[in-house]
Amino acid sequence: MKTALLEKVEQSQLKETAPEFDVGDSVRVHVKIKEGEKERVQVYAGTVIARDGGGANETFTVRRISYGEGVERVFPVHSPYVVKVDVDRRGKTRRAKLYYLRTRTSKQSRLKERV
User: Fold this and answer.
1) Domain of residue 61, residue span
2) Residue 81 falls within a domain, yes or no?
3) Is 4 part of any domain?
């Protein structure tokens, strides 16, 4: 159980407008990358296969296929480095975690679109 002080500190860490997306959605995550003195925004596109945690510790996992190899990346929802999350397509799922997509390839891994 969290104390009032911890909750107050955690509230200050949260973004005011958290991105709206669910597991199964195809998203484009705009991430701030720092290279030396320069900063730029890089886009990471893929399918959300999991959301974990809550509050300031909430994360989501995005999976994509890059050069025939599956690549997964975990992003904190409330991180200042995550500039924005665009939803390309809403996926229809019946589970909270889509880890089974790791064993699927191309057509098998497609999800139906939520209307």
Assistant:
1) 17-101
2) yes
3) no
pLDDT (0 to 100) of residue 1: 65
- Structural domains in the chain (count): 1
Q: Minimal CA–CA distance to 63: which of 48, 78, 76?
A: 48
In a domain, 80, yes or no: yes
Number of H helices, E strands in the chain: 1, 5
pTM of the model: 0.86
Instruction: State how far the Cα of 46 lies from the Cα of 29, in Å rounded to an integer.
Output: 8
Locate 90 and state its tokens: 């809403």
Domain of residue 37, CATH code: 2.30.30.790
Which neighbouring-strand residues pair with 74?
Answer: 61
Residue 60 tokens read as 């989501």
Give CA–CA dist 68/62, Å, rounded.
Answer: 16
Q: How far apart are CA 66 and CA 74, in angstroms?
A: 16
